[in-house]
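Internal ticket #5521
Category: modeling
Description: The requester needs a full-assembly model to guide mutagenesis choices. All entity lines are attached below as received. Residue total reported by intake: 624.
Assigned to: D.W.
Attached entities:
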Amino acid sequence: MNASPPETLLAVADLKVHFPITKGIVVKRQVGTVKAVDGISFSVGRGETLGLVGESGCGKSTTGLAILRMLDITSGKVEFEGEDISAYDRGRMRPIRARMQMVYQDPYGSLNPRMKVADIVGEPLVVHGLATDKDKYRARVAELLKMVGLLPDMAERYPHEFSGGQRQRIGIARALALEPTLLICDEPVSALDVSIQAQVVNLFMELQERLGLTYIFIAHDLSVVRHISDRIAVMYLGRIVEIATRDQLYKDPLHPYTQALLAAVPIADPEIEAGRTQQIITGEIPSALRPPPGCRFHTRCPKAMDVCKTVDPPMRERDDGRAVACHLHS
Amino acid sequence: MAVREVAALDVGVDTSAVTPVRRQRRLGGLFVASVIWIALVGLGAIFAGLLPIPSPTEMDMLGKRALPSAEHWLGNDVLGRDVFSRLIYGGRISLTVGLLAPVIGVTVGGALGMLAGYFRGRFETIVTGGVDVLLAFPPLVFALAVTAYLGQSILNITLVIGILGIPAFTRVARAVTLSLSEREFVTAARALGATHSRILLRELLPNVALPLVAFFLLGVAVTIVVEGALSFLGLGVPPPAPSWGSMIGEGRESLDIAPWLAFLPAIFMFLTVLAFNVIGDTLRALTDPRPGAL
């Protein structure tokens, strides 16, 4: 819960991920660029949970995949455990992959339907050549299943025999198999029922405590993020607009977009809900193909000024450790 | 916060420990009948030489178009050859070509399609282009050209039909691989640092194999018909070796006097093709781990 944690595990500096749009079958020419992630910087301390929130299409998942180097990085730096991995090729990434893993959004699509649970959970061990001793391998798979709250004798079953929450636990067990330090969780609970969501979120917190894991927790549900995160980064259209500790962000959001997001979270109390002044943003998120000039949020911002239409506000760190990119706070 | 309250629930009582239900699957009578039929035709084809039946090529000039008798169970054909024996021996050719030709298609086409669907890019463009060229080429002209230059033999016919079958298998394999590659379990394998060959063989192949096997059995059925058509046209195995297609072709000449000479091999072919289709369908339903889902 500290704004400046003792040791930095992951540092992302000015990360950009652009996708070219090409036209033509024989002669391909580039007609545009989708700037899915356009210059974001943040760092995550060991043992910390960084929540990454924003509307769909704002580049949250792209950020996660780019850190894992599943996507080509256009420019910028990703430093993991002190190593700059942004230019690593497939071979050099292999040992790194053991230390950072991902939990996926879709519990139905993320498990191979033709593999038994034991093979899914044990696959990381096989891929990294750690499955030489059969008994040890089996014991490790059983241990992993137990760790995520499943019974070891479920190992011989196929994924379709499990519910969404159980499948997500299998996915978590697979991600933990190589004892990673960093876990990127890409909306790991958004496909689950609310009651199951809570169980899985609790499991994440329990595992963090036991294994000293570091999380990047991507979500669009602010209440889930609030529950699990130490710090939260708010993304809008490929940029981070505000980073703050959880308490700072929820008590006193600075960026108008963060304020609007928080205002949109329903409160389970009709009296408070009735007394709230709703500040609802309207309109669609602009296209990442042609982001608006100046501040990217000015087209929907209730507090937009003239300067917002022309000048892109830089990310500015404040004295209290939080950072915000908004002309209102510069 | 709603989540905070629910989150206080005991994790120990969640649904994880509930035993998932296993579904029982049953085989239909039609499937059993199909397997028996294929087994009979197959065993007959393999052990034709050992069976106590007359030679399929020995002509009995006095017994032309003879009706069924104790000696000739299904009668004789136009040249006085035993029809039952020719049906058994004909199954040899139909099954050999029918099984081997799709094997060529499924291995070459399946591999090309998977590689194209997984690696995309220029390789995919070349493969799909090549497949389109092969599809556009008139099959009969190709068959004629090959048999004219290389001669009429079982091997050549198998090769011709096999190569002509490659495009269809390539397309099926590529389409399935394309959609599977988008799934997160492939991303997960890549994120684990798995090699391309591992992803192709361990992650994708088991999922692509299922539609390919179903398509393979369909291919067997189609190939038997195609071989029959080629033999009917005189492009199949050279006479006097019997094949169901050539038997239909020979029987055509006496359709008015002895229609069974054409119909008997036609019925054999029909039943065999149907049986392969039934088996293919049932196997697909049996091995699909997600009933009702694609």
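Resolution: model delivered.
Comment from assignee: Confidence is low (pLDDT under 50) at residues 1-5 of chain A.
Ticket closed.
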